[in-house]
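Let's see one such:

===
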Amino acid sequence: MKKLLSICLFLFISGFVFGQFHKTSNNYLKKNITKKNLVSDSKTKDKPWSLQEAEANQTPDVFRSFIGKSNDALSLYGSERRNISYDRETRIILHTYPADPDTYAEALSSGSIVSAYIDAQELPQNYSEWNTHISANPNPDLHHLAFPSAVLYNPQQSSNTDDIYTIFSGSDYVDGAWENNYFGSSKIDNTENHITYIPMESENDFAQSSMTLVNDEVYIFGQDFENIDEYGINQTLKHYKGTTEDPANGFDWEINGLTPNWLINETDGYAYALYSTNAAWKKDGSIGYMWMVGVTNESSSYGVYQPQVYYTTDGGNNWTYIELDLEDNNVLADYLPPWEDENGNAGSVRPSFLTQDRNYPGAVDIQGKLHLFSNVYGSTTGDVENPDEGHWVHEDRLGGTIFDFVIKPDGLDKVYFVDHLLTKCIADTAFGEIGNTHRLQTTKSYEENGIYVVWSDQDNSEDGYLNLSDIYSWGYAWCSNTWETIYPTRNQTSESLYERLYFYPSIGEYIIDSYSNYLIPITTSLTPAEWGMDNSSDPISHNFVVDVNIHICYNAIPETKLAKAILRVSQNQPNPVKTKTSITINAPIIAPVKIEIRNVLGQNISTINPGVLYQEMNVELDLSKENSGVYFYTVTVGEQQTTKRMVVQ
């Protein structure tokens, strides 16, 4: 069935017109798709029976839990928004999205905001319905709310679901124009509702990225700029801070802004800068970072677009610039070509962040370092102000190469290679005018010693473009003062029922942890049938993807959860043993394994360290050199041990 699904989708998309990858710099500087024009009148296509059948006969092969519906595809815009949140005390998962009035009778319009939540423990067990309520339901003649981000706020660290709040924010469309940013709160039981409207300083003043909870303060980030024809100037990074003495009375909001000293195009007057702000914080608020991609007068000698990063240690009241030197980094040089002048002469390696994806997520680890992820190209131009002297991107570059740039207040710490993207993104012709990018996003463990980057990609694309989507992940863990662990790229949805049909994923800030495993909180929007219909004006479905398991070093799991784990060790087979025998070790934790073999006198004749257990491990024991007799093998995983008896002939 899964192969038939993929074939049907390929038939539907074969007639799409795909956006081309620009070779010159100015096209990259154009503003994002105008948000009020996102909904298209794409021609409706017949829904294939195979897709109907797949959805009607969904199996636990990949558990996809239906959440709810939005009125149109406007909610798909922007992977920098966070609309998923997880509260560890109550184990509640929250997803926030614009309403579909036909689905939610109480919604006054598609400008109402829905909050849907479920207990994380229910997801693997059954197809439980999500609890939903309308968090904001304004008069449609006065307000139309869009692009919601949200976090769960548990002021008392209570285990009672009724004690937590939904805090949400986005942009407000009034009388044909974007007029306000809205900031709201409500209890999960849909009481104590409050909403504040703050007028935008310009039509480009959007609060929409990196929403997070830092201690008892809510942060969200945004940007503002002035229009210069199709481009912009005075791009400003904005930090919105919500505080409260009593959440029952709502939050007060203040705004801080920072405008870098951007390099200006002397001919047309626009700034060499993009338009989105990203941010990341250490959970205790001791340090935070925010960044925007562009070229400042301070970095102009470098000549290539890169993140302009700032950090704060006082909750965002003051921000300090971090100077980043990425030129000829030895890790980058292993994967990226150098720039070339107009005569083809090679220079240094200068990674260019000027990609059509424009996804630059990040997360702060337990040491207070920022892990900023991006797919980059090897720049093949020597001077940002003279782009015609070289070529920005070779045609065969596909989507670029993903790296983890580890940054601390005094500069670049190190760079990790993540992976090569397999496809180019579709800028603005997939699913109407929404586009289809690789949607790089990050998530991390509550202990902040494990960070994962997640993205969309497609293997074996016939035309080199991202037409269909699987979900990929790569992880980093800091397991001790000397033990750094990399978890290589994994296609999380390969060989599943909906293989290559996971469209527009959104990722939560924190990983869902339990005593048995870690799960990435992922929602996808658009069912295969909705994608096949190709009408961005139609209602779309949101689903939670269950059982996207990942690994993080064992000491990330709290001791109270380790105590719940049950170690199981099989009897060796064959037994009696002539030369070699095998055992299976199983425990719902991730931890190093040690095996000790002793004789009947208790003497240790062998110690084996087969590696780290990821729930189950098979180990072969070589006893070919041992004398006949009775032996004992003791398996230690974490703080637990099991001993069994075996016979050697």
